[in-house]
Description:
Elements: H1 13-63, E1 69-72, E2 76-84, E3 92-101, E4 106-115
Antiparallel strand pairs: 1-2, 2-3, 3-4
Amino acid sequence: MDGINFRLKGYTLVETLISLTIIMVTFSIATAVFINIFKSSRQELLFDISIHSREIMYETMNNHSYFDSDYSFDRFRITKKIERYNNDVNALYLLKLEAYDEKNQPISVYRQLFIDY
């Protein structure tokens, strides 16, 4: 008769629900931290692109270097294209700077009209 009166050791439903709740809260916090890290990395990349794009724009206008060219950086590259705006005979140009990541995916495009004096 000793085999009939044994008690199984296990967790109650309340203990299981509390442990699942703790796991879900921990997982949601970890997900939020991961998303913030990813966003800050992307924002840093976009900020670097905007800084380098402005430098290229000022260099192009100040040095009158109206040639298409590529600029390579650590995590991206910028392609500079210059063309006459609407086939204008005057000195109106369109400067287009396109940024691409390491996988050659477009990240941003910057366009600027300017007049050559």
